[in-house]
Amino acid sequence: MAELNQKQNFLKGIIKENPIFVMLLGMCPTLGVTSSAFNGLGMGVATLFVLLMSNIVVSLVKNLIPAKVRIPAFIIIIASFVTIVEMILEAFVPLLYEQLGIFIPLIVVNCIILGRAEAFASKNNVLSSIFDALGMGIGFVLALTILGSVREILGNGSLFGLTLLPETANTFILFILPPGAFIALAYLTVIFNRLTNKTT
Amino acid sequence: MDYIIILIAAVFVNNIVLSQFLGICPFLGVSNKVSTSVGMSGAVLFVMTIATTVTYLLNQYVLIPAGLDYLRTITFILVIAALVQMVEIILKKVSPPLYQALGVFLPLITTNCAVLGVAILALGLENGSLVKAVFFAISNSLGFGLALVVFASIREQLELANIPEGMKGVPINLLVAGLLSLAFLGFTALV
Q1: Residue A197 falls within a domain, yes or no?
Q2: ipTM of this predicted complex?
Q3: Which of A61, A185, A197, B32 is the most buried (most CB within 10 A)?
């Protein structure tokens, strides 16, 4: 039974409660950095790391924090991990650090992370929180990578920097510009809803 | 001259919502009525201006001299969260009518990434000064307000439109936002 629950904790974030397509959380980085598949993946993994670490810490210290100050306490925990990610990226992946720019410190205000800390990690044990964070995080990574791939293929004719279309082919530049983010996500949401309605 | 360019750039060319993607959550969340979107814009104008002033001074006179600029993210988010609380308490005492109008929106602003985003972006302005940073914050909140109010007016009209089943709700809103962003792309050559 317990094993089944962990599986559910893990899987719900990927499809049923996908943070992007179903819950519409964390929209700013979703739209802002997905002009290429690589950026989308990088942002997704950075967020996954912060989400996982903050869920672990919050579920460990949940009984020590007075209820009234829990939100500021969660924010400090999250902000510490964001600072760590910021330093790691600057040191080891400077290219990604430059591309993501302002959106790295803004992981702090990504509603997914605070949302999971408040709604899940502060009420459950460490193991469940880890699975919850992994599921939600992977759902987020997948959504960002898919959105980034679609935009990069349509807008630039390439995927992860590899050219797919001949250089003479016309691409929709629109999709790597800001409006393309909204439009691509609109249609992906339609497709996602359609697919999930069919299977359930 | 500098200031006019900052204003036009922030409101039209690099609109904070439609081209920089900051503050999307309130943009999609509280934009179903024009009246609520005006209230939200007012609250953002208020908090963003105060927050940028405080964080700019803090960065300039505390963090940089002490060599602690790597703590920027943590300090800024705490300052913003505390400020929002404080503004709420002060407004409640000093100006009940204003509190009535803005009150419900204030707690939402802590997690509005536009506020933290502008506070950080304001540090990177060329020949930065406190006045310039504050002016930058005001311009950006006007840009936020413009996008929000225009989007809300379109959504009010959309309620009367006949939308295909699969597009109802989120997808049609995103699509409208996309078209609005496309329209704002037309301002690119202004500056």
Answers
A1: no
A2: 0.83
A3: A185
